[in-house]
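Lab notebook page, bench 4
Experiment: in silico fold of construct C2
Operator: M.H.
Input chain length: 178 residues
Purpose: comparison with the prior construct
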Amino acid sequence: MAMAAKPLVVGIPSHWGTVVPPLQHSVYGAAVLENQFESLVRQGKNGLVEPCAAVSWEISPDRRLVRFKIDTKRHFSDGSPLRAMDFKRSWEDGLRMAPKSNNSSLVDALDRLRGFAAFAKTGVIEGVRVIGDDTLELEYDRPLRPAVEYLADGRYAAYKMIAGRPIGTGPYVMKEEA
């Protein structure tokens, strides 16, 4: 994807944090992230959750298993295709980062996943499974009614680090300036 010849400068009325999705923790930052990073789902104009990087999802009757079909036609700004593994890697890498707020921003939606408690020891979340390029399965240790709604946030977007900067699948590429 080619960069625009002229950058667009946007002002935000308050410090909004970082463009690294799992480290984001402010309301302004969430609004900014949506331009560069896409989560599995998003909150639509009518307030309902709708597909974004996932084309669809299924929830088991006991609400412990959620299976997402990833839109593998989407690409990161470097041209590489989006895959289910990108979400698993992004979330697990994000949990290894030192949070910029009192707690990890990712814990809200991930702490009830099977195996989350062992993450610090194992380095993986057993309940996040990748099935091929296009299927991401989340298994919770107990029913979680708002599981999909929690994931409608830029903090849970897939991203890649290229030359020390995060890239996403959204329409814009941003850079942080002091």
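Observations: Residues 25 and 172 are 20 Å apart (CA to CA). The first strand starts at residue 41 and ends at 43.
Next step: discuss at group meeting.
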